[in-house]
Amino acid sequence: MRPIAILALNLVTLGLGAGACVVVAQHAVELVEERAGTALETALANGGFDWVTVEIDGLQARLGGEAPDEAERFRALRAAGAVVNPVNLRDGMSVADPDAPPPPEYRFELMRNGAKVTALGLIPGGGAAKAMLLDTLAEIEGVTTVSGLLSTSPDAPPEGWETAVKAGVAVVRGLNNARVELSAEAMTVTGLAPDAETKTYLEEGLASQIGDQIVLVSDFSVPPPVVSPFVTRFRIDDAGPRFEACSASSAKGRQQIEAAARNAGAQIDDNTCAVAMGAPDTQWDRVTAHGIDTLTQIGAGILTISDLSISITPGAEVLPQPLDHALAAFEADLPDTYQLTVAPVPGVAQGVAAAEAVFSATLSPEGQAIIRGSTVDRHARNVVETLVAARFPRDMLHVSLRQQSGLPEGWSARVLAGLDAFAALETGRLSITPDMLTLKGTTGDPALPGTLATNLTALLGPSMPMLLDIAYVEELDPVASLPSAEDCLARINEIQANTKITFAPGSTELDVDGLRIVRRIAAVLRDCDDVEMEIGGYTDSQGRDEMNTALSQARADAVFNALIAERVRASNLSAIGYGEENPVADNDTADGREANRRIEFSLRYPLFGPFAPDDAPSDETAQADPDAPAAETEQTDGQN
Pick from 127, 403, 432, 581: most CB atoms within 10 A? Predict the structure, then answer.
């Protein structure tokens, strides 16, 4: 072979070998880069740095991505350095802008104890808001000392904060003893209201003022009323035994008095006897119960106990022997501080002129008042005319009075006291004769008959013969307009139409939105005071049966407790967790599972009494078929 050919062949062979070396070297580099990148990415992922990006260029590794903070960036760089020589690392990571610091957790407490007001906590709005608040508190009538233990933040107040603070100030302005606790999410108000009307006014005013922006919990207590004189009147006649007024010094004393009345055959309800302050001694309840027992033995008549004075007016048909025996036993048991008087039987004539004396008044359903009768003189006549003119519209009033001599002692007092009681009726008739004051009529206030009996006894004395027949008419009572059980459920349905009681995943605590919904439901249930309801908790079919049952029970209990905190009667509610039972949709779909996760309100018909609808199941039916459908509303909670 020619030398030149051999040379050419050698050059070609050398070139092919060099190219092969280059290919092999290139492949080796790629293999090294791949292995380094994989090792680095694995190390970063295991360290929780999944936000880091990796680029390998030969022996160098470039790290990218946005770190949540500088410390996290440094930890990622250190984790990478454990795999790759730090000399070969290039840091291209950035750091996210730090989030705005969270707003302060505002806590504000306002307390009043008589003339002293204390404000403490952290409030928004800076020093100006603090100064304005303290100035407002100092201007409250009756407040002499204001202690301001307040810190401030310059931030703007959260939504609803300023309105809630104004409402809290209004509470301590109206009550001598009150406490207000306020945060950005909730407001709790407690206090001692002077009467039930003030309590209702404050509760309704707070609810309307706060709205749904802040969860409101209010708990106002009302002291027992003070009754003076302390009066009970009990009558037995042809219409049966009944109270015309009833006061008790304690809950135990009320039970004792009502037990004696039941033994006499009287019908007793929750409003029959009122627990009040003002009893003349600690034995008053026992003496009253014994007096009712004595009248029951007598068989007919009127028992009036006013403070320490006791009057018994026997019925005209009572025989002397059982009367004397019963009175003797009663008087022997009386404490020395009590005085017993046996009033004469009504109907005894007191002279021709006195027997002819009569005073009457009638009030028609249309509101027309007709006043007729005798007065002792012109001055008494003017007083009566002034009184009725102030109580009745002039265009509906007709007055015909005459002066008469020889009227019984105390006649003017009877007329004025009778007219004052008569004016409180919706319709009625007043008749005053020398031996009896009779007041009959209707009212929409169930407490009015007892109140009038107490007032008349206080004004005219316990021995004054009186016949009170005042009927409570439900149609005249504003409370009678309370909704039926079905109406209550319909109102709850309206509230829940576009809202849901929700829980965080796996949680059994109501969130803020859930508490707001519960608060609106509680307002309905307080109007439905006698409606019994069950709160049922349900889940979908995912998870173990035991876990689902426990979770549904805990969530039903959470709703139950939240309603009780809103002053809904606990005796009217029950909470039961049913787990995955009774699905309302297909658990094989996401929408179906969401529908099955719910809080469900159901009516408990067998316990309703007069509120039960005509087609409500009887007790026997409910016990025989516990799964029978009942009127109900459901609320999905949107959680597992």
Answer: 432
